């Protein structure tokens, strides 16, 4: 599978200006491609092919006075920008046809030089390299200083240089990993766990472990409000407003970085300690439309579950997502009796059937674990129980297919 490894870049003034020029040229080529396709659509002509756009918008454009500055950056950057436009249209049409999963996408739009995120991509034929001194040597930009936080496990196939809203530069390397080698690095275990995600506690595990919610945004609200207040008082278009905007962006970036680090550490710990993991498939978009929206976004459940998903796939673990309509908080994990819905302020309840006193979140985590049906086969691989026919009162329930490791 392909993974991205990101590292902080520290370009000097000359290299920063060269990167800004590369960002601008890539943006212009992308916008020219969108404009050419829109003009063809309005005129009723077929869309120009990638080769036609490359010849017209790059090769021939460099010979004109108005686009001569395109020759000052690497041609690979411009070609990749065209490919990004083609990919955007391909995804848009696939979304219209219903062949692409996820929410429906809109038509590609023009990029603005005021966009907070700018990026350019260099593939292998751009002849970029990592020098002996550990710098990233990019064509027509130079050897940029890199802050290496870890070693790359393999030779990268491409690198994307990104400038974020806080003005920071990053290099994102695409690495092809070996699933067999990655799985061999993980310690063998026969443990399985169910996870109940929440707001009071970020996660409660089926073994009773409770992980507190860091609430990074809530803790930084005072500082963010002050920075945002200062920004609102600055005159639009002034240099002081640009400085204040950068201060706000850096404050938000600090919160996002802390949340991402927390997600990475927790997801890696859970994947390394458990062979099978069960988690609820929460409707984050729906919860974000309630009065709990800020807390839901602060928790970042979707990002955390995505990390669990790709890390489980990488290291040979099993991740099972339970349907969001499963009443995990209403069912007694001891006797299976359904005790009805309960308001959020009820954190403990007593089962009316068997009298067991339940912690709301721990009981839900146990139900998530039981609903996933994770078991361990003789060779240590997690499997699900065999499918059974639903009883008449269980119409609409879903059985799990049989699975086991190869002999």
What is the topology?
Layout (H helix, E strand, L loop, with lengths): L1 E9 L2 H31 L6 H10 L15 H23 L20 E6 L5 E2 L5 E3 L3 E6 L10 E6 L5 E8 L2 H7 L6 E6 L3 E5 L4 E3 L3 H17 L6 H35 L2 E5 L3 H4 L5 H7 L1 H14 L3 E5 L25 E3 L6 E3 H13 L2 E2 L5 E2 L24
Parallel strand pairs: 8-11, 11-12
Antiparallel strand pairs: 1-5, 1-7, 2-6, 3-4, 4-5, 6-7, 8-9, 9-10, 13-14, 15-16
Helix pairs in contact: 1-3, 2-3, 5-6, 6-9
Architecture overview:
The chain is α+β, with helices and mostly antiparallel strands and 407 residues long. It has 10 helices and 16 strands. The strands form 4 sheets. The chain has a 7-stranded antiparallel beta sheet. The protein has a 5-stranded mixed beta sheet with strand order 10-9-8-11-12, sandwiched between helices. A hairpin with a 6-residue loop joins strand 13 and strand 14. The longest helix is centred in the middle third of the chain and has 35 residues. The radius of gyration is 26 Å and the shape is elongated.
Structural descriptors:
seven-stranded antiparallel sheet, single chain, alpha+beta, 407 residues, five-stranded mixed sheet
Outline: elongated
Main β-sheet: number of strands, strand sense, barrel status?
A: 7 strands, antiparallel
- Please give the order of strands in the largest beta sheet: 2-6-7-1-5-4-3
The level of helicity is: 25-40%
Distance between the termini: 25 Å
What is the rounded Rg? 26 Å
Uncertain segments of ≥5 residues (pLDDT<50)? 376-407
């Amino acid at each position: 599978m392909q993974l991205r490894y990101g590292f902080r870049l520290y370009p000097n003034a000359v290299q920063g200006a060269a990167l800004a020029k590369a960002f601008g040229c890539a943006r212009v080529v992308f916008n020219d491609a969108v404009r050419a396709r829109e003009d063809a659509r309005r005129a009723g002509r077929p869309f120009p092919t990638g080769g036609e756009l490359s010849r017209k918008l790059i090769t021939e454009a460099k010979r004109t006075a108005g686009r001569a500055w395109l020759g000052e950056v690497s041609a690979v950057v411009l070609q990749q920008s065209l490919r990004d436009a083609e990919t955007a249209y391909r995804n848009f049409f696939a979304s219209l046809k219903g062949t692409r999963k996820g929410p429906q996408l809109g038509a590609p739009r023009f990029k603005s030089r005021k966009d907070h995120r700018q990026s350019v991509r260099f593939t292998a034929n751009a002849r970029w390299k990592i020098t002996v001194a550990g710098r990233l040597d990019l064509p027509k930009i130079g050897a940029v200083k890199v802050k290496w936080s870890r070693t790359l496990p393999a030779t990268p196939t491409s690198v994307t240089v990104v400038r974020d809203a806080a003005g920071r530069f990053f290099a994102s390397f695409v690495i092809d990993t070996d699933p067999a080698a990655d799985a061999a690095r993980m310690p063998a275990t026969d443990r399985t766990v169910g996870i109940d995600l929440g707001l009071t506690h970020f996660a409660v595990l089926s073994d009773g472990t409770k992980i507190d919610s860091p609430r990074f945004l809530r803790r930084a609200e005072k500082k963010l409000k002050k920075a945002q207040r200062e920004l609102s008082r600055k005159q639009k278009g002034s240099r002081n407003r640009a400085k204040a905007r950068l201060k706000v962006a850096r404050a938000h970036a600090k919160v996002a970085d802390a949340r991402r680090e927390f997600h990475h550490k927790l997801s890696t710990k859970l994947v390394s300690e458990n062979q099978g993991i069960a988690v609820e498939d929460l409707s984050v978009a729906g919860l974000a439309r309630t009065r709990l929206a800020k807390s839901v976004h602060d928790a970042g459940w979707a990002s955390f579950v995505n990390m669990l998903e790709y890390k489980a796939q990488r290291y040979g673990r099993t991740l099972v997502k339970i349907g969001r309509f499963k009443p995990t908080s209403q069912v007694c994990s001891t006797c299976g009796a359904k005790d009805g819905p309960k308001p959020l302020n009820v954190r403990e309840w007593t089962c009316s059937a068997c009298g067991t006193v339940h912690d709301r979140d721990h009981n839900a985590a146990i139900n998530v674990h039981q609903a996933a049906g994770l078991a361990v086969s003789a060779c240590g691989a997690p499997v699900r129980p065999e499918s059974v026919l639903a009883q008449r009162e269980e119409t609409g329930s879903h059985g799990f297919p049989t699975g086991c490791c190869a002999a």
